[in-house]
Amino acid sequence: MVENKDVEVERKEKKSDPSKVGVAAIKYITYLIIFFGILWFLINYVFGQLL
Fold this sequence. Notes:
By secondary structure, this protein is an all-alpha fold. It has a domain at 20-51. It is built from one helix and no strands. The protein has one helix at residues 18-50. The mean pLDDT is 85. Keywords: Membrane, Transmembrane, Transmembrane helix. This is Cytochrome c oxidase subunit IIa family protein. The chain crosses the membrane at residues 21-43.
């Protein structure tokens, strides 16, 4: 006697998108550059006049 069984195989692929990591890195590096640029401006021109 032969038994036939239906077996479903479900494959899950882990999706990792390295381009999203690159975009996030560029975004946060840009934020840091803008922050330090504003800080540099404040130190040189605003607080520099007071000293």
